[in-house]
Amino acid sequence: MAYRHKLETDTEKLRRRNRELSILNTIAQALNHEVDLARALNSALVHVADLFGLQTGWVFLLDDHGRTYLAAAQNLPPALADHPRRMGGTCTCLDEHQDGELGDPCN
Known about the structure:
Blueprint: H1 2-33, H2 37-52, E1 57-62, E2 68-74, H3 78-81, H4 92-98
Antiparallel strand pairs: 1-2
Helix pairs in contact: 1-2
């Protein structure tokens, strides 16, 4: 009985790892397909959102001064899409990342 449980656990771990590798491969392909950073990020974001079943997504990057900026977005709500300046500033994830305290993704 213990052997069967371990086998099921190992199989599930293998499935999860294969999915993770598949997602990483999809991102790498999308990023390597484009030369332009903005198009590459938007392409990767479309794929990631699809793989995770998400409707909305965004990518922040750091500029030369260590400040975050919105580099790519998909299907933002009108209140944000129509007013991109509202995506500036800070949020919990960005603050924790800047402080080196971000562990798991947060929202």
